[in-house]
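Input.
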Amino acid sequence: MIRIKRSLFTILLLCSALTQAQNKFNGNFEVLDNTGNPEGWNLRIKTQSPYIVKLDSTIKLQGKYAISITDSAGADYGGINFKINKRFKGKQLMLVGNLKTKNVTGGFAGLWMRTDGINGKSVGYENSENPAFTGTNDWKEF
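Output.
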């Protein structure tokens, strides 16, 4: 069983520079929507995901919550994302997040960020796969 804890910007952060719309980033998962999920976060990037994704108020780095992602059926991948619909000035975006893992085998836990251009096509992609974050680890900032 893979149990992965995420806090702050966490596993998947999808940045899209598509509009000038303002949205507040809920990076610590503190603001909940009417269903009890972190506002703005997509907790199912795959519709048929065997991963169990939930808020965790017990094991967290700061604030009230972290996100717990548990592999219950040997899935190929799973995660969550937050889409930022905002244009940014400058040439760099920085993703910072913290992960805590328990018994991660046969893969890795990590963060990734994709940046889309005005036309919706990907113009940048970064991840924390190297070095792979596996096994059991206390909180680590990436």
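Residues 1-22 have pLDDT under 50 and may be disordered.
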